[in-house]
Amino acid sequence: MRALFLLFIADLLLASEAIGIEGYIASSILFFLIVLLIAINNNSVENKSQKLIRTSNKSLAKLNLIFFQNRVENGDIVERLELFFKVLHSKSSQNQNSIIFSYPPKEARYFSANFKAITNATHNILSFVNKSVNNSSILLSIKPTKNPNEYQVLIKTSAHMNSSEIKKALENKNKNINYKFLSIASNYVELIGSKIEFNIKANNSIFSFNIIMHQLSQPQTIEITTQKNALVAYESQTGFFTIVAQLSAYGVSTQPESSWESVKNHITDMLYKPNFLFIQAKILKKLPYSELNLIKEWQKIKGFKIITISDNEYYDEVASSFGDAILYQPYTTDELSSLIE
Predict the structure, then answer these.
(1) Position 169 pLDDT exceeds 60
(2) CA 91 to CA 312: how far, in whole Å?
(3) Backbone phi and psi for residue 252, each to the nearest 5 degrees, phi listed first
(4) How many of the other CB atoms lie within 10 Å of CB of 76?
(5) In terms of pLDDT, which residue wins out, 263 or 54?
(6) How big is the CA angle at 131 (ends 116 and 181), to the nearest 5 degrees?
(7) Which of 36, 67, 225, 303, by CA, is between 20 and 30 Å from 270?
(8) Angle 270-271-272 from CA coordinates, rounded to 5°
(9) What is the mean predicted confidence (pLDDT) over 269-274?
């Protein structure tokens, strides 16, 4: 606006009939000053704008960090973790792994906690383990510790992992891109004032870290009206014992053996009547048609419900082609309970 005003004054001077040589010189000087002023003004605005952007970026970064560190929300820990489960089911097919989630059905679920840091740290550790092992069961469990409001997040696999490289990554000292997930997870865990521990025990590789969650509601009560029976055919002992414990909480008893031969004997035993047959799609894929027909025939006789368990995306087609319902690993007890009601 100032520049336009000065140009207007100059125009008036140039238009004056009595301007003379002295007026001409004065107007020329004025015009030069105006051009110089416009150039300085534009440069100043540009520099101020750039400075503002740079300052704004730094401020936003600082504000985001502070906001993230203190971002405590109310929510359901199971539902928050479940947001990543479809992605994990898909990714675990790359190395033929199965990710298994264990959270006691009778445990409290609603808390006040920094869920974003907790879930992102957990997801990154699982992503790293999944990329590092083959044909393995990866267990994710969350259990209360002896300290008030403290819980332990544990991720375990029976595969042996490189201890020295992992510990360097958790300290942000490993530049290998294959360990980036661990470095990211470590940063998330540090934001909540905790630390990721890595140990090898009895041939198990174990990641763990403690979290603080303030309970907002009492654990849910599970009413058991009638006792039910289930057969579980599952090659992975981790998967088998996890589902057995979950079913037990809902009043469903299971047989102690998970091999297909043992389960088949119980299916054909006239004295035993199961309500459910849980069978791994991995097992179904290897069975001959005669055995698949046997299951169907005895289902008609005994009336049990067939629930197939798909370890990862690779087995989805097999799981969907047989049985009455599917459990996609990792699943929650909400999904399990809806199938056995």
Answers:
(1) yes
(2) 8
(3) -110, 120
(4) 16
(5) 263
(6) 35
(7) 225
(8) 95
(9) 95
